[in-house]
Amino acid sequence: MKIATWNVNSLRVRLPQVLDWMESAQPDLLAVQETKLTDDAFPVGDLHALGYHAVYSGQKTYNGVAVFSKTPIENVQTDPPNLKDPQRRILAVTAGPLRVINLYVPNGSEVGSDKYAYKLDWLAKIRDFIAQEMAQNPHTVVLGDFNIAPEDRDVHDPESWREKILCSTPERDAFRALADLGLTDLFRRFEQPEGSFSWWDYRAAGFRRNLGLRIDHILASPHLAERCTACTIDKAPRRLERPSDHAPVVAEFAGF
DNA sequence: ATGGTCGATGTTCGA
Known about the structure:
This protein is α+β, with helices and mostly antiparallel strands. Helices cover 25% and strands 26% of the residues. It has helices spanning 11-25, 44-49, 114-136, 158-161, 169-179, 222-226; strands spanning 2-7, 29-33, 53-57, 65-69, 73-77, 90-95, 98-104, 140-145, 184-185, 199-200, 212-213, 216-220, 228-233, 249-253. The protein binds one DNA strand through residues 9-10, 12-13, 34, 36, 60-62, 107, 109, 115, 147, 201-206, 242, 244-245. GO terms for molecular function: double-stranded DNA 3'-5' DNA exonuclease activity.
């Protein structure tokens, strides 16, 4: 079984790249963020033509999450009871043996800003939601754009990013609090090249110079984490013309 | 030198 996460930064613009990538990579499940599409505009026909079920929670201009799965999707949850939030950032689904929680964590703008406070509050509330989900589902995956680089090795220049947005200690503590629920960052279960990142700023030739951060993650509950055989970042789509600023992160499992 | 580039929108804002 292969699953993946990808912040596509507008599914309208990126749809051909997403379809090409899915046709080639053949994930059993793909979680996407920043679709920036209302539900009535969702290209569900294109996904069906490729053999995928699709569920989505969209809004105009901002945010928007979706899950594409080869197996049918059930028990869709977009609004955790403890989180009153009109922003469309969460999509929890059951697909085959998996409970999958797709997250587009708020960016936070700047440390100390209102958006930063919203981010930390959102993360605290989503932690409670994930804990409840894990209590009911032995095979839980939490994946998406976390907008947090968990450690200095996830940052191209840790000193210049010290206590900046995406890297601040409260954000890293919030990420750690999710992991402490019993979730493993699958990417770090394996030896990885130095300078492995999932996002590069469009500005200042960030990708060409590998000025990136690893902020997109796949976390898994213990039974799943033990059966994970690989977790990689696929930089190929980031090299295309008119790419998303994020690359897909992919995890594979044996025995599922 | 607090820059730079996208995407959606609308003559800026969020990332």
